[in-house]
Amino acid sequence: MSEVVQMERNGGVATIRMNRPERMNAYNFEMGEALLATVSAAAADPAVRCLVLTGTGKAFSAGGDVESFAAFQDEGPAKFMGLAIGLHALIATLRRAPKPVIAAVNGVAAGAGFSIALACDVAVAASSARFTLGYQNIGLSPDGGMTFFLARAVGAQRAMEMTLFSRVLPAARAAEWGLVQEIFPDAEFAARTAALASLLAAGPTLAYARAKELYNRALSQPLESQLEEERQNIARCAGSRDFREGIHAFLDKRPARFEGR
After folding, report:
1. Rounded to a whole number, what is the largest CA-CA distance in the chain?
2. Which residues are the active-site residues?
3. Which of 75, 94, 222, 229 could cross-link 119 (Cys pair, CB 3.0–4.6 Å)?
């Protein structure tokens, strides 16, 4: 595995770490390829039931590596098309992963780093974390699904305000706006994120996957189509071992022991 991305397994949890701390985990071609390969492998591994995406050091990811952009600025459009293709494949893989994905935002999440965090199912942040776009500072428009996820989360006007003025959101404000679901003190961040990931990894993974499919389509199709997909998916879940275990646990008045099957 590339050293710019590291992965460790603990039971059903795979923690994937962006590992360019000297560059605040800035995104470049090498990191993009490594992230896509690592996330794809973990998403396809039935033994992995929850993914955690985080960064090494003081940043989650500072976004695109501007220094590397300078090296190919004369080839701008073609190079950026290739960079965006890789980033967008990663975003799609995170959304399609048939298991929960947690963005563990340990520090600044800017530009593409912010987009990656928004693409995950749940975002938790250290109390010192910060969120910003920053694209306009170097004359670029947003990518990585930013305009899709941010507009849906905070509304188009607020998203445009953040884009125009590169507003920096502290973790508390990001939580107020629904961009972060939990804030943990810096000193407790790793332990509390691990506990949350373990909780999700012990859950009904197939049911989570069906719910994720439904939410992915919820804002892009009519109510009747969504109701039909809900009907199909709940029926599929009802044939799973986890459903049978959930029923028995409820009747026995004990915690369920889900297997993700």
Report:
1. 67
2. 88, 143
3. 94
- Using one digit for the tens of pLDDT, what is the confidence trace for 58-82? 999 999 888 877 776 666 677 778 8
Task: Give the tokens for residue 40.
Answer: 């794809």
Instruction: Provide the sign of the torsion angle of the four alpha carbons 215, 219, 221, 222, taken in this order.
Output: positive
**DSSP designation for 240:** S
- Which amino acid is residue 139, in one-letter code? G
Taking residue 96's Cβ as centre, other Cβ atoms within 10 Å add up to: 13
Q: Walk me through the domains of the chain, giving residue ranges and CATH numbers.
A: 5-201 (3.90.226.10), 205-252 (1.10.12)
Scan for tokens 């369920």, then name that residue. 256
Q: Is 24 helix (H, G, I), strand (E, B) or coil?
A: coil
d(CA 218, CA 133): 26
Task: State the number of CA atoms in the 13 A half-sphere of 44 facing the CB.
Answer: 7
